[in-house]
Amino acid sequence: MATTQTAPNSICISKYLNSLSQTPQRLRKRMLATWTPDQELNQVRQRSGADMKRKLQWYDLVALGVGGMLGVGVFVTTGTAALEKSGPSVFISFIIAGISALLSSLCYTEFSVQIPVAGGAFSYLRVTFGEFVGYFAGANILMEYVLSNAAVARTFTEYLSSAFGVHNSTTAWRVQVDGLIKGYDMLDFPAVALILLLTLCLCHSTKESSILNLTMTVFHVVFFAFIIIAGFLHGNSNNMVRPDGLTPHGVRGLLDGAAGVYFSYIGYDSVSTMAEEIQNPSKSLPVGIVGSVLIVSVLYCLMALSLCFMVPYNKISESASFSMAFQHIGWKWAANVVGAGACLGIIASLLVAMLGQARYLCVLGRARLVPPWFAQVHPSRGTPLNATLFLGLCTATIALFTELKIVVEMINLGVLLVFYLVANALIYRKYVMISHNPPSHTFMFLFLLSSCALGFSISWQFHQQWWNLSIFGGSMIIITALFQYMVPCLRQDTEWSVPFMPWPAAMSVFLNVFLMSTLKMSAFQTFGIWACLITLFYVLYGVHSTYKAEEFEMGVNEVNPNSSILLPKVDIQVI
Q1: What's the rounded Cα separation, in Å, for the pair 100 and 416?
Q2: Residue 464 and residue 319: Cα distance in Å, rounded?
Q3: How far is CA 128 from CA 1, 392, 443, 470, in A?
């Protein structure tokens, strides 16, 4: 009996070991394998079984983008950035980060119009640079979503305690456990409860979740207007220049602050993952993505200014900073109201981000880079049920233990890297895949562009002379101008495309590299460990799973080319 039970296990292990022995050949075939937009839109999407329901309009997208960014940016990052990096000029840091986010959002928008699927950056990079780059970006976006959602949920607890008049919001309503490592020893059960509640809501219906977000976002914007007006009317403009001037840490502090608050703009990426649930993607996506970034950028700057009007930067609280600011000016009742309003914004932000993270995992499952169980869409609700539940549990587990400071730098690095890759992909796609120019010209431009950005960033970090910075910055401008002049770009017959190419994408590349260079070394070390882990998973599982999926589909087409149940043959292109 025991022999009978172990026989299937032995066969499975033997097959897997045989697959591992073929890893080099499979890596050569799969790593650079790309899919066409048509395959992403049709064949790959069919792997989820049921389609997602197309119920969203452009205003739903704007509300999702605004709701997804507002709660994260103002209530999580502003206080820390002002206190430790930018000082009263934190609003300028938000402007710099907003410009970079706007440029990246333009790149996202063109891709989302041409490839309106739920995969976001993963799908855009897979059709351009191949399977591995797409997988690497998708895994990083997933990491960023899970960590940022956990961090934001813990901030919810701080503002909730503030809403009930608790002054020590950092430790209130949390349980300290002796013996655990510092930074992981404060258990946050309200954050866990919030995430699990939102997970159940998202499993039910996307449209109902969108209506809930729209309602909360409207109230949230009104609440923001109250904070801005109150801050300007009852604050003191002298706080903008005392005790150490507008920029106490100089230009470096401004730019370090910009990298620190970039985490605030990640919500628009969630909008692009809604592409399969929008009634008119080509018109709604540009409005939703770009419009939400512009609206949020203006609100961020005004909120940051109002905070610094109310409190000198060196007295801003790291936790629940806006509530503490109102207490500073003597409005204790307003501090409670701000705590409640911040909770509302954080809930809206979490709702949008958790929508996005589930759709990323769903599309990775369709591609067979993770188990296909994650790709299943509920036939009646039209939601990626399995992916939503799994990531909700992961987020809740991390939120239970982990403090914001531990993960925020790694989140920023992961986001900036993905946006950097998307900007490169847009240039390559427009100038090589669409305009049919030799790839070597574009690859050389991208290499020189990144080299100039890296040289500028290193010179900045090592406090080199200004003429060094001028050389690298000027070289970037000259290289981009020469590329635009020498390499033609065909205009596309699409309803929307990025204007003035390649300048927006080139500037996005430059800014993303520069902002990455301002992050701490610990972020790169942690990210290096994460990169090794996801690469190992790809080598041990992903490449073999996608290889077998391709073999299966090709075999089905040879046996039954007219099958309507299984997928048609996949034409793999290698860049």
Answers
A1: 10
A2: 36
A3: 52, 30, 13, 33
Q: Compute the half-sphere exposure of residue 157: CA atoms within 13 Å on the CB side of its CA.
A: 27
Count how many Cα atoms sit within 13 Å of the Cα of residue 574 in the half-sphere of its side chain.
Answer: 6
- Distance separating alpha carbons of residues 219 and 224, to the nearest angstrom: 9
Task: Collapse the DSSP code of 377 into the 3-class scheme (helix H, G, I; strand E, B; otherwise coil) and give the result.
Answer: strand
Q: Which of 391, 365, 385 is nearest to 145 (CA)?
A: 391
CA distance 72 to 407: 14
Among left, alpha and beta (phi > 0; psi -120 to 50; other), residue 214 is: alpha
Closest CA to 98 of 283, 310, 298: 298
Q: Is 34 left (phi over 0), alpha (psi -120 to 50) or beta?
A: beta
> What residues does 304 pair with on adjacent strands?
none
pLDDT at 446 > cutoff 80 = yes
Token pair for 146: 């899970």
- Predicted TM-score (pTM) of the model is 0.82
Please calculate the CA angle 25-28-31 and round it to the nearest 5 degrees: 130
Task: Give, as one character, the DSSP assignment of residue 57.
Answer: -
Q: What is the rounded radius of gyration, in angstroms, for the C-alpha atoms of the chain?
A: 24
Tens-place pLDDT, residues 143-181 = 888 888 888 888 888 778 877 777 665 666 777 777 767
